């Protein structure tokens, strides 16, 4: 029983990490149809933000709490710069954007290697996150519980922004029909830029969270980017709930299969299941219905 | 007519450069290096077919390259071990017994068929599943990349049966020819170079055919092709399978030339790296992808020897600048020149 509960929590925890990584991607991919391969490097930037914060501020707890908004801003600013300089020019060529941002990702990784050194660095977890928490039925690591909470907060925050604010209304309008939104007076340019800021900022937060799980290195983001994209594909674009379900679904699947076989076989099985799943729902779990053929 | 002539001249120049000039001018070491680049060029021709002509951004060619390579490597290992012998690394890490799924590759015939058939079948499976359901564009790109990630992870996890992170290496002979003999190494180069020319000829004939026209039509206006009564899925699957088979053959040649195959040359990063030469050479041209792949691989070897960190910046910048500003690669420059000449 304990083992099953432990595995269940492992799945939820993996799901929350995937969710944090994929949330921003789902947003930018859903709205603009561009694949940002540098998303993982924005996560890496968030993680190094946490590392720098800890070197400046002695108290690990304060540094971590401060690093979350800082990571958001660092990721967001990098995203806006990328959008304004490159992606903006390439909206009509989404597949090429993938390769261009891959080039950006390579450069950013090398910058990290040159600035922080190739070996991984470690961010100390504050004392209140280093132990484990007794949930009555099972013991769970506090850091993982914190990340789960952070993912819930991020999703709720994003959902509130999308449903309750004027910006959210504009974003949804652009996702559903870009031309019609433009005609109705929505500045799609400004909306795109803000979406990119939020989406990349979420990557920064994900990076801060990842420092609690392991050490930070230049390839931190690229380890997660493929899984994060798989979540977006399985979840369908344009709606957060698809991403949430897909992230936890894949996390639980991975942990569940891992329990009975090995981690590497679980990865392959999850990939195969996603392909099979797309047979049934080629557009993912949820998709915005349009009349367009493409 | 002029295009036919251009292609024929291209073949003549390619054959002269690869089969006559290179072996005459290069040292054994450099020639073997060029042989490795020629393997990359074979993969690039396939990518040109799938991506340049078919619009399918395949980020997982490393999988097919790896399948071909591992099939060949397994055969070489078994051949080195002798009849009913056990490859050295299995004695070291494994149970000391050859797994059942290795056995068929003792036969050279099965190996040669497997090098082409296994990547083709995997591509057929994924292609049929994906293209029939009209999953395309970015979704296909992501799935092909996830396939590469899953494949590399699977290989790393199987230490006892397929060498894990170390991969398979230390081959002594290639179908009975000792690999330490420089003459046989030269022979391998000739095989690889001739294969590249054959693969290019296949691509040329495909591009000239009705199929080639349809493939480009699917790339540009998939729905219109559907409305004309063709099934775009079939056209795409054929192109994808041919590209996979080319990558498999390249992998199989890579193994005896380079002497090692490991998960590091089949995962996500090498799979994307295959694309850069194609993008630079001109993705939809006949010779561009192959020439681009060789030039980029050569530049990488030269530059990363002396400035490893600079090469990564350079590679990133190449991706960025070429794809963003020269979408047809350096061949754009040539066609621009032709256009200005015709205008004047």
In short:
The complex is a heterodimer of chains A (294) and B (344). With 294 residues, chain A is mainly alpha-helical.
Notable traits:
A: 294 residues; mainly alpha; ABC transporter involved in vitamin B12 uptake, BtuC; two-stranded antiparallel ribbon; 75% helix; globular; B: 344 residues; two-stranded antiparallel sheet; 15 helices; 76% helix
Topology of helices and strands:
The complex is a heterodimer of chains A (294) and B (344).
Chain A: H1 2-32, H2 39-56, H3 60-85, H4 94-116, H5 127-130, E1 132-134, E2 139-141, H6 142-164, H7 166-176, H8 178-183, H9 188-210, H10 220-235, H11 240-260, H12 263-280
Helix pairs in contact in A: 1-6, 1-9, 1-10, 1-11, 2-3, 2-4, 2-9, 2-10, 3-9, 6-7, 6-9, 7-9, 10-11, 11-12
Chain B: H1 2-25, H2 28-53, H3 61-81, H4 88-93, H5 108-132, H6 137-157, H7 159-162, E1 168-169, E2 173-174, E3 177-178, H8 182-208, H9 210-220, H10 222-227, H11 232-258, E4 260-261, H12 268-281, H13 288-306, H14 308-325, H15 331-343
Antiparallel strand pairs in B: 1-4, 2-3
Commentary on this structure:
The complex is a heterodimer of chains A (294) and B (344). Chain A is mostly helical. Helices cover 75% and strands 2% of the residues of chain A. The model of chain A has no long low-confidence stretch (mean pLDDT 86). By secondary structure, chain B is mainly α. Chain B has one domain (30-343). In chain B, α3 (61-81) packs antiparallel against α5, α5 (108-132) runs antiparallel to α11 (232-258) and α8 packs antiparallel against α11 (232-258). The model of chain B has no long low-confidence stretch (mean pLDDT 88). Classes of the chains: A mainly alpha (294), B mainly alpha (344). At the A-B interface, α4, α10 and α12 of A face α5, α6, α12 and α14 of B. Chain A: This is Urea ABC transporter permease subunit UrtB. Chain A: It is found in: Cell membrane. Chain A: Belongs to the binding-protein-dependent transport system permease family. LivHM subfamily.
């Amino acid at each position: 029983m304990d083992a099953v509960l432990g595995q269940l929590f492992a799945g939820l925890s993996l799901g929350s990490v995937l969710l944090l990584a994929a949330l921003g991607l789902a947003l930018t991919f859903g709205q603009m149809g561009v694949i940002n391969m540098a998303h993982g490097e924005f996560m890496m930037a968030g993680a190094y933000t946490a590392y720098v914060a800890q070197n400046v501020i002695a108290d690990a707890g304060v540094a971590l709490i401060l690093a979350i908004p800082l990571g958001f801003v660092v990721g967001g600013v990098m995203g806006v710069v990328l959008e304004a300089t490159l992606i903006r020019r390439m909206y009509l060529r989404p597949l090429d954007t993938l390769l261009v941002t891959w080039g950006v990702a390579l450069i950013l990784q090398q910058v990290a290697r040159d600035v922080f050194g190739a070996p991984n660095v470690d961010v100390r977890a504050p004392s209140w996150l280093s132990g484990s928490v007794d949930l009555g039925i099972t013991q769970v690591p506090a850091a993982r519980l914190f990340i789960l909470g952070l993912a819930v907060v991020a999703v709720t925050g994003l959902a509130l922004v999308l449903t309750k604010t004027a910006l959210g209304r504009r974003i949804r309008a652009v996702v559903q029909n870009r031309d019609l939104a433009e005609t109705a007076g929505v500045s799609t340019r400004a909306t795109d830029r803000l979406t990119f800021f939020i989406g990349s900022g979420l990557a920064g937060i994900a990076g801060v969270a990842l420092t609690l799980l392991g050490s930070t290195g230049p390839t931190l983001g690229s380890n997660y980017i493929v899984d994060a994209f798989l979540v977006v594909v399985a979840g369908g674009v344009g709606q957060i709930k698809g991403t949430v379900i897909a992230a936890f679904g894949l996390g639980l699947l991975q942990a569940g299969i891992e329990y009975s076989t090995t981690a590497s076989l679980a990865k392959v099985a999850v990939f195969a299941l996603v392909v099979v799943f797309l047979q049934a729902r080629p557009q993912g779990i949820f998709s915005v219905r349009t009349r367009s053929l493409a | 007519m002029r295009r036919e002539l251009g292609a024929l001249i291209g073949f003549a120049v390619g054959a002269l450069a690869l089969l006559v000039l290179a072996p005459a001018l290069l040292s054994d070491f450099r020639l073997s290096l060029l042989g490795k680049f020629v393997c990359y060029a074979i993969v690039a021709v396939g990518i040109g077919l799938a991506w340049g002509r078919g619009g399918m951004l395949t980020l997982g060619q490393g999988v097919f390259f790896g399948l071909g390579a591992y099939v060949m490597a397994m055969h070489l290992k078994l051949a080195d071990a002798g009849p009913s012998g056990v490859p050295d690394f299995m004695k070291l890490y494994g149970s000391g017994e050859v797994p059942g799924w290795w056995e068929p590759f003792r036969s050279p015939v099965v190996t040669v068929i497997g090098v082409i058939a296994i990547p083709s079948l995997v591509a057929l499976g994924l292609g049929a599943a994906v293209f029939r359901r009209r999953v395309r564009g970015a979704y296909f790109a992501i799935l092909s990349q996830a396939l590469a990630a899953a494949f590399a992870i699977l290989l790393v996890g199987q230490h006892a049966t397929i060498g894990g992170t170390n991969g398979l290496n230390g081959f002594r002979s290639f179908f009975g020819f000792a690999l330490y003999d420089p003459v046989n190494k030269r022979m391998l180069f000739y095989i690889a170079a001739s294969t590249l020319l054959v693969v290019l000829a296949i691509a040329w004939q495909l591009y000239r055919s009705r199929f080639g026209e349809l493939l480009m039509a699917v790339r540009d206006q998939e729905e219109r092709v559907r409305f004309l009564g063709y099934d775009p899925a079939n056209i795409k699957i054929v192109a994808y399978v041919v590209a996979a088979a080319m990558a498999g053959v390249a992998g199989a040649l890579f193994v005896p030339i380079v002497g090692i195959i490991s998960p590091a040359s089949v995962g996500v990063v090498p799979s994307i790296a295959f694309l850069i030469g194609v993008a630079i050479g001109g993705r939809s041209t006949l010779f561009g992808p192959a020439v681009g792949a060789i030039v980029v691989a050569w530049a990488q070897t030269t530059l990363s020897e002396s400035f490893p960190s600079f090469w990564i910046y350079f590679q990133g910048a190449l991706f960025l600048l070429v794809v963003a500003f020269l979408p047809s690669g350096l061949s754009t420059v040539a066609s621009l020149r032709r256009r200005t000449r015709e205008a004047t």
